[in-house]
Structures are given as structure tokens and as C-alpha cells.
Task: structure prediction
Amino acid sequence: MAYLTYDTQTLKACATTCFAWYNVAAPHLHRTLTFRQWDTDSSHTYLHPLEYLHKLELLPFVKQLQFERGIFGSPWVSPAIFDSESTQHFGALENLQDLAIADLEFFKFPMGVGEYFGHFSPRLRSVALSAPRGTRRQLLDFLRLFSKLDDIKISHYHAWVGAHDALGAPIVPIKGELRGQLTLKNFGDEGLLKDIIVVFGGMRFTSMHLDDVLGMQLLLEACADTLETVHIHPGGAFQRCKRVLYPSEDFTNA
Result:
């Protein structure tokens, strides 16, 4: 049945064959839960699938959770979408392993994102953030919620400082992992990488996919003893970094 993980129609057919087949197909059929903004009306409850899954006792099967980009690219993930009922069901997602969020604006969570996502900590292994907006400390505090992390994926992020800058409290290390895959694309904050190394007690990634990353040399040195595969696409950030480090060199044809 695992071969049909990405064949939804066939999984549905198998689930309706008999009770025994339903028990085997259901975990694959409901493994991934995707939330999306289907209307610009902020009064709508975008997490309504949780109630449906709760009634059918399917929430324990969800292991991958995705928040897609909003309509016209406008961010929509905020405390406003978590009403009392949705929050209760959201807290029942206890077996989540992969979390992906697009356009997460940390300043919309004045009390921090831990109140909403912290309960995923015991089992979460992978985090993917697309175009997050926040300070270096806000992103760091989000990642450190999950001490069992193996994989990190961040795309389209540059250091952002504004009215919602985080407090300058000392960074407290945790007993982390970071033994899987690191994927960075259009990433321009080497300072955040240094802080991640401090918080997780180093990096031990076995695979890296780096596309236009500032701080590439730092990453390669940090994981020199564990890396097995590396994909590098230099991009603008890498070229700018080289010109700063070696101003006398000519990298026109590099």
C-alpha cells in the first residue's frame, strides 16, 4: 500500500474495499494535511478541515502539515485563524513530523509562535519556511522549539530589522540534532547560521542544497566531517561574499 502514497484516487478506492483495507490505506491517505486561503475574507475559518478530521478520528494519521501561500501572495497565517475550537483540534496533531509554512510573518505573533506550534516539538523532524519575515532572533526562537529537528529548509530570507526586533536576551543552547538535509535558497543572513550552530551545538548535516547563500563557507566547514552530498548554485550572495573577502581578485568569469 505504501507504493500508492501519492496516488490519492487509488488509495480512496482501496479504503472503500473493506474494513481491513481501510485500516491500511487510511494512514497513507491522510498523511498530508494542507491549509490554504480560499477567500480574502479574514472572518472565514481556514482551519475548518481539523473539525472534519477530528470527528472521523483521523488527526493521529497526519504527519505532514503545509500552510500554502495566500491569495495574491498575501500572508494569512496569524493568530486570527486560530479560534478556540481550531486551537483545540490543532493541538491534537501529536504525530506531526514535517511542517511547511509559506510567508510566515513573525511580528503578527506578539506572544511568540511557540504558543501555536510548540506542541509539535516531541516528534517534528523537518521544518520548511518560504519567504519568512522576521528578525534573526525570531527565526532562531522558532527553530529552537523543535529539539529533534533533522532537516531545515529556508528560502527567500534576508536579515530583517524593524519595530518588532527581538529582545537581546542571551542564546541558551539546546540538545539538538540537525543530522539530515539543509536546503537554503536566496538566503542572506550568515549571522543566523552562526546562531543556529550555537543553539544546536553544531551542525551534522549529511546533505546540503545551497542556492545563492551568504555564509556558504561557514556551512561547509561546520559539516566537513558529516557531509555526503552537496549541491551548490553560487548565485549573487556567493559572488558578493567572495568580493568582500577577496577584493583584489577578479571573479568576472568565476
About this structure: The chain is about 30% helix and 20% strand. The two ends are 49 Å apart (CA to CA). The beta strands are 32-35, 64-67, 98-102, 126-130, 151-158, 181-188, 207-213, 229-233.
